[in-house]
Design goal:
Strand order of the largest sheet: 1-7-6-2-5-4-3
CATH architecture: 3-Layer(aba) Sandwich
Number of domains: 1
CATH topology: Rossmann fold
Order of helices and strands: EHEHEEEHEE
């Protein structure tokens, strides 16, 4: 699988914006990576590419944020959840809609749930530290049928 190396937050944002240009309403992008690997920075760039001018912040403590640009954008962070089975059944319904593009950080918590709900997983992106401000980003191109996408649990630290 091919990957890109970015040297700065601006370059990581630029790759997010480039990916966003290929998305359509109803698309979901699952974004995996260890803490501090640049997931929110990547989403910020995608949001800028979709015309969002307001600050794009990590939704870690709110589960999700909604933005309005050229189309509706949902930004979810499932890090604080142990799993979706123990949550309210409609927890993600307002975020995963046919009218919006959604970016989901820490998607391993909901692995399988996205496909079962009928949402279209357009990309599975993984970010990794590559030393200093460098990041390795995989999954930018659509995965060929039958290929193994990056693990959505990649980099998740153990929970206490």
């Amino acid at each position: 699988m091919s990957f890109e190396i970015t040297e700065s937050a601006a370059e990581t944002e630029a790759l997010g914006a480039a990916l966003a240009a290929e998305l359509s309403p109803g698309d979901v992008v699952l974004i995996a990576g260890e803490l501090g690997s640049g997931k929110t920075t990547f989403v910020r760039g995608a949001c800028r590419g979709l015309g969002i001018t307001e600050p794009v912040l990590s939704p870690t403590f709110t589960i999700g944020r909604r933005y309005r640009g050229m189309l509706a954008v949902s930004h979810l962070d499932l890090y604080r959840l142990d799993g979706l089975d123990s949550e309210e059944p409609g927890l993600l319904d307002d975020y995963l809609t046919p009218e919006s593009v959604a970016f989901v950080e820490w998607p391993g918590v909901g692995e399988g749930a996205f496909e079962r709900t009928g949402v279209r997983v357009a990309r599975r992106v993984e970010l990794r530290h590559a030393g200093g401000n460098r990041r390795e980003i995989r999954g930018l191109a659509p995965a060929p049928s039958g290929s193994s996408p990056p693990s959505p649990q990649a980099g998740r630290p153990p929970r206490d």
